[in-house]
Design brief:
Length: about 350
Protein backbone atom coordinates (compact mmCIF):
# COMPACT_ATOMS: atom_id res chain seq x y z
CA UNK A 1 0.00 0.00 0.00
CA UNK A 2 2.63 2.49 -1.08
CA UNK A 3 0.29 4.85 -2.97
CA UNK A 4 -2.51 6.95 -1.66
CA UNK A 5 -6.24 6.94 -2.19
CA UNK A 6 -7.78 10.32 -3.02
CA UNK A 7 -11.43 10.98 -2.16
CA UNK A 8 -13.39 14.02 -3.31
CA UNK A 9 -16.57 15.56 -1.95
CA UNK A 10 -18.27 18.13 0.24
CA UNK A 11 -17.45 18.17 3.95
CA UNK A 12 -20.66 18.92 5.82
CA UNK A 13 -21.67 20.15 9.24
CA UNK A 14 -24.39 17.86 10.62
CA UNK A 15 -26.89 19.07 13.22
CA UNK A 16 -29.04 16.64 15.20
CA UNK A 17 -31.02 16.45 18.41
CA UNK A 18 -30.08 14.15 21.27
CA UNK A 19 -31.94 11.05 22.47
CA UNK A 20 -33.60 10.45 19.10
CA UNK A 21 -35.77 13.54 19.46
CA UNK A 22 -37.51 14.92 16.41
CA UNK A 23 -36.11 18.04 14.78
CA UNK A 24 -39.13 19.93 16.11
CA UNK A 25 -38.34 18.98 19.71
CA UNK A 26 -35.86 20.31 22.25
CA UNK A 27 -33.72 23.41 22.31
CA UNK A 28 -30.19 22.23 21.50
CA UNK A 29 -28.55 20.83 18.38
CA UNK A 30 -25.36 18.77 18.50
CA UNK A 31 -22.90 19.36 15.66
CA UNK A 32 -20.59 16.91 13.89
CA UNK A 33 -18.62 16.87 10.64
CA UNK A 34 -19.18 14.29 7.93
CA UNK A 35 -20.24 13.60 4.38
CA UNK A 36 -20.09 10.43 2.31
CA UNK A 37 -16.67 10.81 0.74
CA UNK A 38 -15.23 12.23 3.97
CA UNK A 39 -16.59 9.21 5.84
CA UNK A 40 -14.84 6.92 3.37
CA UNK A 41 -11.59 8.80 3.87
CA UNK A 42 -11.78 8.60 7.68
CA UNK A 43 -12.56 4.88 7.59
CA UNK A 44 -9.65 4.22 5.22
CA UNK A 45 -7.30 6.19 7.47
CA UNK A 46 -8.46 4.19 10.49
CA UNK A 47 -7.64 0.99 8.59
CA UNK A 48 -4.12 2.22 7.87
CA UNK A 49 -4.41 3.49 4.31
CA UNK A 50 -2.63 6.58 3.03
CA UNK A 51 -5.63 8.72 2.11
CA UNK A 52 -6.21 12.32 1.07
CA UNK A 53 -9.53 14.10 1.10
CA UNK A 54 -10.08 16.93 -1.39
CA UNK A 55 -12.77 19.54 -0.76
CA UNK A 56 -13.46 23.29 -0.64
CA UNK A 57 -13.99 24.99 2.71
CA UNK A 58 -14.67 28.57 3.79
CA UNK A 59 -11.68 30.34 5.28
CA UNK A 60 -13.22 30.86 8.71
CA UNK A 61 -13.26 29.12 12.07
CA UNK A 62 -15.97 26.65 11.00
CA UNK A 63 -13.99 25.56 7.96
CA UNK A 64 -10.82 25.35 10.03
CA UNK A 65 -12.55 23.21 12.66
CA UNK A 66 -13.81 20.83 9.94
CA UNK A 67 -10.31 20.47 8.51
CA UNK A 68 -8.85 19.87 11.98
CA UNK A 69 -11.34 17.07 12.62
CA UNK A 70 -10.28 15.25 9.43
CA UNK A 71 -6.60 15.69 10.30
CA UNK A 72 -7.31 14.32 13.78
CA UNK A 73 -8.27 10.99 12.18
CA UNK A 74 -5.14 10.87 10.03
CA UNK A 75 -6.70 12.04 6.76
CA UNK A 76 -4.41 14.18 4.63
CA UNK A 77 -5.80 17.51 3.40
CA UNK A 78 -2.87 19.31 1.75
CA UNK A 79 -4.90 20.34 -1.29
CA UNK A 80 -7.91 21.84 0.48
CA UNK A 81 -9.26 24.75 -1.54
CA UNK A 82 -10.11 27.65 0.75
CA UNK A 83 -12.86 30.06 -0.28
CA UNK A 84 -16.54 30.79 -0.23
CA UNK A 85 -18.68 32.03 2.62
CA UNK A 86 -20.19 28.97 4.29
CA UNK A 87 -20.11 25.22 4.80
CA UNK A 88 -22.91 23.04 3.59
CA UNK A 89 -25.03 21.73 6.46
CA UNK A 90 -27.75 19.20 7.03
CA UNK A 91 -30.18 18.44 9.83
CA UNK A 92 -30.57 14.80 10.74
CA UNK A 93 -33.44 13.25 12.66
CA UNK A 94 -32.50 9.79 13.92
CA UNK A 95 -34.90 6.92 13.43
CA UNK A 96 -36.65 5.51 16.47
CA UNK A 97 -38.77 2.41 16.69
CA UNK A 98 -40.84 2.28 13.50
CA UNK A 99 -40.18 5.96 12.67
CA UNK A 100 -37.72 6.45 9.80
CA UNK A 101 -34.85 8.91 9.88
CA UNK A 102 -35.16 12.26 8.09
CA UNK A 103 -32.66 14.63 6.49
CA UNK A 104 -33.09 18.33 5.72
CA UNK A 105 -30.30 19.77 3.54
CA UNK A 106 -28.98 23.33 3.60
CA UNK A 107 -26.23 23.26 0.97
CA UNK A 108 -27.13 25.99 -1.51
CA UNK A 109 -24.32 28.51 -2.13
CA UNK A 110 -21.88 26.64 0.10
CA UNK A 111 -18.16 26.76 -0.61
CA UNK A 112 -18.40 23.41 -2.41
CA UNK A 113 -21.62 24.35 -4.22
CA UNK A 114 -19.60 27.13 -5.87
CA UNK A 115 -16.63 24.92 -6.79
CA UNK A 116 -15.89 25.26 -10.51
CA UNK A 117 -13.73 23.37 -13.02
CA UNK A 118 -10.17 24.67 -13.11
CA UNK A 119 -10.07 25.58 -9.42
CA UNK A 120 -8.23 22.38 -8.38
CA UNK A 121 -4.94 21.17 -9.85
CA UNK A 122 -5.94 17.54 -10.31
CA UNK A 123 -2.75 16.49 -12.08
CA UNK A 124 -0.72 17.57 -9.07
CA UNK A 125 -3.22 16.13 -6.58
CA UNK A 126 -3.34 12.72 -8.27
CA UNK A 127 0.32 12.30 -9.21
CA UNK A 128 1.09 10.05 -6.20
CA UNK A 129 -2.31 8.33 -6.08
CA UNK A 130 -3.38 5.01 -7.51
CA UNK A 131 -7.10 5.29 -6.63
CA UNK A 132 -9.50 8.20 -7.07
CA UNK A 133 -12.86 7.91 -5.29
CA UNK A 134 -15.88 10.07 -6.12
CA UNK A 135 -19.63 9.75 -5.84
CA UNK A 136 -22.89 10.85 -7.39
CA UNK A 137 -23.50 13.36 -4.61
CA UNK A 138 -21.09 15.91 -6.09
CA UNK A 139 -22.97 15.63 -9.36
CA UNK A 140 -26.21 16.54 -7.60
CA UNK A 141 -25.19 19.61 -5.56
CA UNK A 142 -24.89 22.18 -8.35
CA UNK A 143 -24.05 22.43 -12.04
CA UNK A 144 -20.62 23.82 -11.13
CA UNK A 145 -19.78 20.99 -8.74
CA UNK A 146 -21.04 18.48 -11.29
CA UNK A 147 -18.79 19.95 -13.98
CA UNK A 148 -15.88 19.95 -11.50
CA UNK A 149 -16.52 16.25 -10.83
CA UNK A 150 -16.41 15.41 -14.52
CA UNK A 151 -13.16 17.38 -14.79
CA UNK A 152 -11.66 15.27 -11.99
CA UNK A 153 -12.90 12.04 -13.57
CA UNK A 154 -11.51 13.03 -16.98
CA UNK A 155 -8.07 13.78 -15.56
CA UNK A 156 -7.98 10.68 -13.35
CA UNK A 157 -8.88 8.64 -16.41
CA UNK A 158 -6.20 10.29 -18.54
CA UNK A 159 -3.62 9.59 -15.81
CA UNK A 160 -4.55 5.92 -15.67
CA UNK A 161 -5.83 5.94 -12.08
CA UNK A 162 -8.22 3.34 -10.74
CA UNK A 163 -11.56 5.10 -10.39
CA UNK A 164 -13.89 4.13 -7.56
CA UNK A 165 -17.45 5.42 -7.69
CA UNK A 166 -20.32 5.31 -5.19
CA UNK A 167 -23.66 5.80 -6.98
CA UNK A 168 -25.00 7.71 -3.95
CA UNK A 169 -28.28 8.83 -5.53
CA UNK A 170 -29.73 11.52 -3.27
CA UNK A 171 -33.00 12.46 -4.99
CA UNK A 172 -33.58 15.49 -2.74
CA UNK A 173 -30.36 17.15 -3.93
CA UNK A 174 -31.02 17.28 -7.68
CA UNK A 175 -32.47 20.79 -7.93
CA UNK A 176 -30.51 22.55 -10.70
CA UNK A 177 -32.15 20.86 -13.68
CA UNK A 178 -29.86 17.96 -14.56
CA UNK A 179 -31.29 14.50 -15.20
CA UNK A 180 -30.00 12.30 -12.34
CA UNK A 181 -30.14 9.04 -14.31
CA UNK A 182 -28.34 10.50 -17.30
CA UNK A 183 -25.69 12.22 -15.19
CA UNK A 184 -25.01 9.23 -12.95
CA UNK A 185 -24.85 6.96 -15.99
CA UNK A 186 -22.19 9.17 -17.56
CA UNK A 187 -20.19 9.06 -14.33
CA UNK A 188 -20.46 5.28 -14.17
CA UNK A 189 -18.75 5.07 -17.57
CA UNK A 190 -15.49 6.10 -15.85
CA UNK A 191 -15.63 3.58 -13.02
CA UNK A 192 -13.42 0.56 -12.38
CA UNK A 193 -14.98 -0.18 -8.98
CA UNK A 194 -18.59 0.65 -8.07
CA UNK A 195 -20.57 0.59 -4.85
CA UNK A 196 -24.30 1.14 -4.47
CA UNK A 197 -27.11 -0.06 -2.28
CA UNK A 198 -29.89 -2.11 -3.84
CA UNK A 199 -32.17 0.93 -4.17
CA UNK A 200 -29.53 2.76 -6.21
CA UNK A 201 -29.03 -0.24 -8.48
CA UNK A 202 -32.80 -0.38 -8.94
CA UNK A 203 -32.73 3.28 -9.98
CA UNK A 204 -29.96 2.72 -12.52
CA UNK A 205 -31.53 -0.48 -13.89
CA UNK A 206 -35.19 0.64 -13.65
CA UNK A 207 -36.07 -2.62 -11.94
CA UNK A 208 -37.46 -3.31 -8.47
CA UNK A 209 -36.34 -6.38 -6.53
CA UNK A 210 -36.73 -5.92 -2.77
CA UNK A 211 -34.38 -7.48 -0.24
CA UNK A 212 -36.84 -8.97 2.22
CA UNK A 213 -34.65 -10.79 4.74
CA UNK A 214 -35.97 -10.56 8.29
CA UNK A 215 -33.28 -12.89 9.64
CA UNK A 216 -30.16 -14.74 8.46
CA UNK A 217 -32.11 -17.70 7.01
CA UNK A 218 -33.34 -15.74 3.96
CA UNK A 219 -32.53 -17.40 0.63
CA UNK A 220 -31.06 -14.99 -1.91
CA UNK A 221 -32.24 -15.25 -5.57
CA UNK A 222 -28.65 -15.48 -6.79
CA UNK A 223 -29.47 -16.49 -10.36
CA UNK A 224 -31.50 -13.33 -10.79
CA UNK A 225 -28.74 -11.11 -9.40
CA UNK A 226 -26.12 -12.76 -11.59
CA UNK A 227 -28.22 -11.91 -14.64
CA UNK A 228 -28.74 -8.38 -13.29
CA UNK A 229 -24.98 -7.77 -12.89
CA UNK A 230 -24.25 -9.13 -16.36
CA UNK A 231 -26.78 -6.67 -17.75
CA UNK A 232 -25.35 -3.65 -15.94
CA UNK A 233 -21.83 -4.71 -16.97
CA UNK A 234 -22.95 -4.71 -20.59
CA UNK A 235 -24.09 -1.11 -20.16
CA UNK A 236 -20.88 -0.07 -18.38
CA UNK A 237 -18.21 -2.53 -19.61
CA UNK A 238 -15.23 -0.73 -18.06
CA UNK A 239 -16.22 -1.68 -14.52
CA UNK A 240 -15.33 -5.23 -13.48
CA UNK A 241 -16.09 -4.95 -9.75
CA UNK A 242 -19.64 -4.14 -8.67
CA UNK A 243 -20.50 -4.23 -4.96
CA UNK A 244 -24.16 -4.09 -3.93
CA UNK A 245 -25.08 -3.46 -0.30
CA UNK A 246 -28.46 -4.85 0.75
CA UNK A 247 -30.25 -3.73 3.91
CA UNK A 248 -33.70 -4.41 5.29
CA UNK A 249 -34.83 -2.19 8.17
CA UNK A 250 -37.51 -3.79 10.32
CA UNK A 251 -37.08 -1.05 12.93
CA UNK A 252 -34.50 1.48 14.08
CA UNK A 253 -32.89 -1.19 16.27
CA UNK A 254 -33.19 -4.22 13.98
CA UNK A 255 -31.68 -4.46 10.48
CA UNK A 256 -30.51 -7.27 8.26
CA UNK A 257 -27.48 -6.62 6.08
CA UNK A 258 -25.61 -8.44 3.34
CA UNK A 259 -23.81 -7.73 0.08
CA UNK A 260 -23.05 -9.16 -3.34
CA UNK A 261 -19.87 -8.68 -5.38
CA UNK A 262 -19.75 -9.24 -9.12
CA UNK A 263 -16.09 -9.41 -10.08
CA UNK A 264 -14.71 -10.19 -13.53
CA UNK A 265 -17.78 -12.17 -14.53
CA UNK A 266 -18.30 -14.10 -11.29
CA UNK A 267 -20.88 -13.44 -8.56
CA UNK A 268 -19.79 -13.71 -4.93
CA UNK A 269 -22.18 -13.74 -1.99
CA UNK A 270 -21.67 -13.68 1.76
CA UNK A 271 -23.63 -14.21 4.95
CA UNK A 272 -26.67 -12.20 6.05
CA UNK A 273 -26.02 -10.37 9.31
CA UNK A 274 -29.04 -10.07 11.61
CA UNK A 275 -28.27 -6.91 13.58
CA UNK A 276 -30.00 -5.89 16.81
CA UNK A 277 -29.35 -3.10 19.34
CA UNK A 278 -28.16 -0.65 16.69
CA UNK A 279 -26.20 2.34 17.98
CA UNK A 280 -26.05 4.40 14.73
CA UNK A 281 -27.03 3.37 11.20
CA UNK A 282 -25.60 6.50 9.56
CA UNK A 283 -22.69 5.83 7.19
CA UNK A 284 -23.15 2.07 6.72
CA UNK A 285 -22.85 2.44 2.95
CA UNK A 286 -19.66 4.49 3.34
CA UNK A 287 -18.26 1.74 5.58
CA UNK A 288 -19.01 -0.76 2.81
CA UNK A 289 -17.20 1.39 0.26
CA UNK A 290 -14.14 1.92 2.45
CA UNK A 291 -14.06 -1.75 3.43
CA UNK A 292 -14.08 -2.79 -0.20
CA UNK A 293 -11.37 -0.30 -1.23
CA UNK A 294 -9.14 -1.34 1.65
CA UNK A 295 -9.69 -5.06 1.09
CA UNK A 296 -8.98 -4.85 -2.65
CA UNK A 297 -5.48 -3.68 -1.74
CA UNK A 298 -5.03 -5.84 1.35
CA UNK A 299 -6.24 -9.12 -0.22
CA UNK A 300 -5.51 -8.81 -3.96
CA UNK A 301 -7.06 -11.57 -6.02
CA UNK A 302 -9.22 -12.90 -3.18
CA UNK A 303 -12.66 -11.54 -4.06
CA UNK A 304 -14.50 -13.62 -1.46
CA UNK A 305 -12.24 -12.19 1.25
CA UNK A 306 -12.86 -8.70 -0.12
CA UNK A 307 -16.62 -9.15 0.12
CA UNK A 308 -16.54 -10.74 3.57
CA UNK A 309 -14.31 -7.92 4.86
CA UNK A 310 -16.55 -5.21 3.38
CA UNK A 311 -19.64 -6.71 5.06
CA UNK A 312 -17.83 -7.04 8.39
CA UNK A 313 -16.76 -3.39 8.22
CA UNK A 314 -20.32 -2.25 7.45
CA UNK A 315 -21.82 -4.41 10.20
CA UNK A 316 -19.39 -3.02 12.77
CA UNK A 317 -20.38 0.54 11.76
CA UNK A 318 -23.76 -0.06 13.40
CA UNK A 319 -21.92 -0.09 16.74
CA UNK A 320 -20.10 3.23 16.17
CA UNK A 321 -21.81 6.57 16.89
CA UNK A 322 -21.33 9.25 14.24
CA UNK A 323 -20.97 9.34 10.48
CA UNK A 324 -17.74 7.38 9.92
CA UNK A 325 -16.63 3.85 10.77
CA UNK A 326 -13.77 4.17 13.28
CA UNK A 327 -12.80 0.48 13.36
CA UNK A 328 -9.25 -0.58 12.53
CA UNK A 329 -8.23 -3.35 10.15
CA UNK A 330 -7.28 -5.61 13.05
CA UNK A 331 -10.66 -5.07 14.73
CA UNK A 332 -12.51 -5.89 11.52
CA UNK A 333 -10.39 -9.01 10.94
CA UNK A 334 -10.92 -10.13 14.51
CA UNK A 335 -14.66 -9.71 14.12
CA UNK A 336 -14.55 -11.52 10.79
CA UNK A 337 -12.61 -14.48 12.17
CA UNK A 338 -14.97 -14.82 15.14
CA UNK A 339 -17.85 -15.39 12.73
CA UNK A 340 -16.28 -18.19 10.68
Amino acid sequence: MDKKIVTFGELLLRFSKSNRMRLTQGQTFAGAYGGSEANVAVSLAMMGDDVEYVTRLPRNQIGQAASMKMLEYGVGMPDTLWGGDRMGTYYYEESAGMRSSKVVYDRANSAFYELKPGMLNWREILKDADVFHASGITGAISKDSCDATFEALDIANEMGKTISFDINHRKNLWKYGADPLETLSRMLEYADVVFGDIIEYEFIMNRHVPFEATDSSYQMPLDFYEEWFREIHQRFPRCNKWLMGMRNMMSSSHNTLTALLWSNGKLYHTRIDDIHDIVDAMGVGDAFTAGQLHALRAFPGDDQRVLDFALAAATLKYSVPGDANLCTESEILEFLECRV
